[in-house]
Write a structure and sequence with these properties.
Keywords: Carbohydrate metabolism. The structure is a single chain. It is built from ten helices and 13 strands. The chain is α/β, with parallel strands linked by helices. It has two domains: 3-106 and 275-288, Nucleotidyltransferase, domain 5; 117-271, ATPase, nucleotide binding domain (Nucleotidyltransferase, domain 5), CATH 3.30.420.40. A five-stranded mixed beta sheet has the order 3-2-1-4-8, sandwiched between helices. β5 and β6 (71-73) form a beta hairpin. α6 (196-204) crosses α7 (208-232) and α7 packs across α9. The radius of gyration is 18 Å and the shape is globular. The relative contact order is 0.16. Bound molecules: adenosine-5'-diphosphate, 2-acetamido-2-deoxy-6-O-phosphono-alpha-D-mannopyranose and zinc ion.
């Protein structure tokens, strides 16, 4: 059985074919459309999967946003160019004529990373620091999705009550300060208008403002991780996403976490499946479900 796996993020759309051993081949990636229309996302997905679909028997999607009964509802529509609603499973089933399942991107990545842990871990949390800040929780070996699909949306917990307003409607969310969009929007002077990727490149060659923007994100993430430890008593936290995996970022988060009291600290590591955690998680869930 071959599964077409798709990862819908705020910055990029990725797809691949997964065999029954979860081996991924023919990975492709295109930018997420900046338009707020559902038609633009539909057209981009059609372009992405066109060369792969004839070889698949089913589809599994990991997507940014709250995924409930196959429908995507953005918690922060700013991350999807303003798009707040997309009938994911219905659209992809129509496009491919194949059975389809969908789950939140960070929840999917959590499941993939949980399955790659070698030690006897039953309680873990995954965080993605990417366009937004997403997450997922495994508690006593079970992936929590919640009644409404909201479980693990740590990006929308409070970082600073005096902070900027988040696209979700709250003020001072972790996401608005620590995410790729958050890092970019705090840039001033020569760095104003730069992407987070460009800011990392400037930091690497000694730009102090770029370095301070990254440190602010790492500090916010470390405080979030301390809160997560206190709430869940998880045995480890795994960090992914292009910011989370960027050179030197996790080291800074660890340094900030070391400033917290011992009881709030937890072992941290980078995602083993790197940028493919969402795709791998979708493939894993497809294999576990009969559809
Ligand atoms: P998505 O949110 O679509 O899943 P990513 O995980 O790639 O995508 O996160 C996108 C964010 O990461 C953007 O803000 C982008 O500028 C930033 N980014 C991409 N590549 C890098 C990199 N090599 N180093 C630092 N930041 C990066
Ligand atoms: C946002 C939210 C989450 C998502 C997280 C990371 C939307 C559209 N997305 O908090 O559902 O998991 O971003 O998403 O409200 P990514 O695009 O950065 O991978
Ligand atoms: Zn928010």
């Amino acid at each position: 059985m071959t599964t077409l796996v798709i990862d819908i993020g705020g910055t990029k759309l990725a797809a691949a074919l997964a065999d029954s051993d979860l081996h991924l081949t023919r990975r492709r990636e295109i930018p997420t459309p900046a338009s707020r229309t559902a038609d633009a996302l539909y057209a981009a997905l059609a372009e992405l999967i066109a060369p792969l679909v004839s070889q698949a028997q089913r589809v599994a999607v990991a997507s940014t946003g709250i995924i409930k009964q196959g429908v995507l509802t953005a918690l922060n529509p700013d991350n999807l160019g303003g798009l707040s609603h997309f009938p994911l499973v219905e659209a992809i089933s129509r496009m491919t004529q194949l059975p389809c399942i969908a789950i939140n991107d960070a929840q999917a990545a959590t499941w993939a990373e949980y399955h790659s842990l070698t030690t006897d871990i039953r309680d873990m949390v995954f965080l993605t620091v990417s366009t937004g800040v997403g997450g997922g929780i495994v508690s006593n070996g079970k992936l929590l999705t919640g009644t409404e699909g909201l479980a693990g949306h740590f990006g929308h917990t409070l970082a600073d009550p005096e902070g900027p307003r988040c696209g979700c409607g709250r003020t001072g969310c972790v996401e608005v300060m620590a995410s790729g969009r958050g890092i970019a929007s705090a840039a001033r002077g020569d760095l104003a208008g730069s992407t987070a990727k460009q800011i990392f490149a400037h930091a690497a060659v000694g730009n102090l403002h770029a370095q301070s923007l990254i440190l602010r994100s790492a500090r916010v993430l470390a405080r979030l991780i301390a809160d997560i430890k206190v709430v869940t008593d998880c045995q480890c936290v795994i960090v992914g996403g292009s910011i989370g995996l960027a050179e030197g970022y996790l080291r800074q988060v660890k340094t900030c976490l070391d400033e917290e009291p011992e009881v709030c600290r937890v072992p941290l590591s980078g995602a083993k499946h790197q940028h493919d955690a969402g795709l791998r998680g979708a493939a894993l869930l497809a294999r576990e479900m009969t559809f």
